[in-house]
Amino acid sequence: MSDISIIIPTKDELNVKNILKDIEKNFKKNEIEIIIVDKSKPEIKRKIKDLGFPVIDQISNGYENALVEGFKRAKSPILATIDADGTYLVKDLKSVILELDKGDYDFISGDRSSGLRKMTFYISFGNKFLTKWFNFLYHRKMHDVLSGVFAMKREVFDKIKYDDAFRAGTLFFEIEAVRRGYRIKDIPISYADRVNTKSRITKSKPIYGFFIAFYSIKYARDYRPLVLFGAIGILLIIAGIIVGALVVQNYFATGVLIEVGRALISFMLIVLGFLSIITGLILDMLLEIEKILLKK
């Protein structure tokens, strides 16, 4: 197995000591580098630092930014992470790394599909919805795009380390990897009950989910414009046709064109719809040119 850097983000999460023990059981000391990126309260931070592993004081905010800070300090050719809350097993992290080590893919994450029943309904629904949205936008067959266990080759991170890590969790790394043409996949893993009763990394899961959905749409605009502008264009055209049909129906019923305003609205909606689709086509073509340049 290649040398590995394992980054563990923590925020008032003392269960990290159990994760560290499991890492030592599953990996040889000479093949791993462990870095904790911590944003805990002072009293908890002291206890985490007393565990005897390198600890970085997180200066930014957010889970994804914690990982970016840790990955930037890491020295190994394989970069990996696992949450500290006990919901993920270290043996599954090892499976993810072994799959990456085969060399067929550049980014591997854990798929918690079989464990989604342990989540609340809205979290489970949100994960499934965002995964389907990601697959639709980027033509992939992922099963879980928000897993807290993943590993990637250093070259992937080196390409994205200066990008702004928007509030989208693991999805940030997956979108950026796919955008640059890297191969990604996920493999089945276990998913356990949280050791603590609530997430320490995110205060509000619904708000966190909103941020992820917002940035997913933003990235669709920036990196899959034909999908977004095409969908908007089609909706505008359909709306224009419906309004126009009402005008035509009234004309045939009365024999007089009295709804000039509606007719103009119909015309404008259809024109805007076609303009939206054309905009998407042009932007999509420019992005294809950008992808070619990025690969060179």
UniProtKB/TrEMBL annotation:
Which residue spans traverse the membrane? Answer: 226-252, 264-287
Q: Which domain of life is it from?
A: Archaea
Question: What positions does the domain Glycosyltransferase 2-like occupy?
Answer: 5-160
For whether the record's keyword set contains Transferase, the answer is yes
Keyword 4Fe-4S on this protein? Answer: no
UniProt keyword annotations, A-Z: Membrane, Transferase, Transmembrane, Transmembrane helix
Q: Which GO terms describe its molecular function?
A: transferase activity
Q: Which PANTHER family match?
A: RFBJ PROTEIN, UNDECAPRENYL-PHOSPHATE 4-DEOXY-4-FORMAMIDO-L-ARABINOSE TRANSFERASE-RELATED
**Identification of the protein by name:** Glycosyltransferase
